[in-house]
Write a structure and sequence with these properties.
single chain, 324 residues, alpha/beta, TIM Barrel, 2 domains, eight-stranded parallel β-barrel, three-stranded mixed sheet, 11 strands, 35% helix, 15% strand, globular
């Protein structure tokens, strides 16, 4: 990677992706609590409008505006849906940004590439009627032909898209694939390239890192990795990793465990005790070989996330230590 001083934007999608987890429901009050936790942690943008729930989510976005939150509020609309223009008009009165999605899978309508391109450009042209920042997002980008991904992204930027997001929609990509695609787009496009990871193969954080190394300006994340199927790249993992790699995000790591506990409680989805960064056992040491120098077996100082290590004593008891 080139300039390590280049900041990376972390856009939180907990209130969109998280609601695709079976059984998860957030009331308006709970959503406001989550946004407040994100703001306290220094996360700059919250994606709160899903393309399948536009009207309902816009009502919450209006409520969020009434609370004078400083966090930028964004949402997604499907450009391939006939109601997109009407939704765009309503979103323009509430959101800071909209990303127009055009699925690149040949199994999703419109199926032909020229039709996908034509429809996206049509909606982008319509978006110029509004004082709204508009980006273009490409579901299935990691599964599609990279030449077409680059072509449609270039045309979208020429038509006014101010951000391009590539989605690993089925979670099947690997860091090498992600790095090659994001690197190609970042080198060719004059706008920020964002990457959206899914964790179906357990590679969401690794793929997010590969995207950053390749030049991504931003990443989609969720608290606790909450999201569709196996979830998304977790805010706490990605933010901590980037901090350790000396890449600025503006996120305050010390606030992440509190946000994690809040979302665990409100969602009802338990955080694994083995979860990186926020799991109960991350700083617990029991192996005899580790007990004399436990910090040699930790990826980072637990104090960064307001945690303490626990070292097992004879008989199975443990002691808490602030040793660094």
């Amino acid at each position: 990677m080139g300039d390590r001083e280049r900041p990376v934007v972390l856009k939180d999608s907990t209130l969109r992706e998280g609601l695709d987890v079976p059984g998860v429901r957030f009331s308006a009050t709970q959503k406001l609590q989550i946004v407040a936790a994100l703001a306290s942690a220094g996360v700059p943008e919250a994606e709160v409008v899903a393309p399948s729930r536009v009207e309902r989510d816009l009502k919450f976005a209006r409520k969020l505006r009434e609370c004078a939150s400083t966090i930028r509020v964004s949402g997604l609309l499907y450009a391939n849906w006939t109601r997109c223009e009407a939704e765009l008009e309503r979103a323009s009165t509430v959101l800071d940004r909209v990303d127009l999605l055009m699925p690149l899978s040949e199994q999703r309508e419109p199926r032909e590439r020229p039709a996908k391109l034509a429809r996206l450009l049509e909606v982008l042209a319509h978006s110029r009627c509004y004082a709204l920042e508009v980006g273009a997002g490409f579901p299935h980008a990691t599964q599609a032909d990279s030449d077409f991904v680059l072509e449609i992204a270039r045309r979208a930027v020429a038509a006014g898209a101010r951000r391009v997001t590539v989605y690993d929609t089925n979670g099947g990509a690997d860091p090498f694939t992600v790095g090659a695609l994001v690197g190609r787009l970042s080198a060719a496009l004059p706008v920020p390239v964002f990457f959206h990871a899914h964790n179906d193969l357990g590679l969401a954080t690794a793929n997010a890192w590969a995207a950053v190394v390749a030049g991504a300006a931003g990443l989609d994340v969720t608290i606790n990795g909450l999201g569709d199927r196996a979830g998304n790249a977790s805010l706490e993992q990605v933010a901590t990793l980037l901090h350790l790699k000396a890449i600025a995000t503006g996120v305050r790591l010390s606030e992440l465990p509190k946000a994690s506990r809040l979302v665990e409680r409100l969602s009802g989805v338990p955080v694994s005790r083995l979860a990186p960064v926020v799991g109960k056992y991350v700083f617990e040491h029991r192996s005899p070989a580790h007990l004399r120098l436990p910090r040699e077996f930790e990826a980072f100082d637990p104090a960064k996330v307001r945690r303490q290590r626990r070292v097992a004593l004879a008989g199975g008891a443990g002691r808490t230590t602030a040793e660094r």
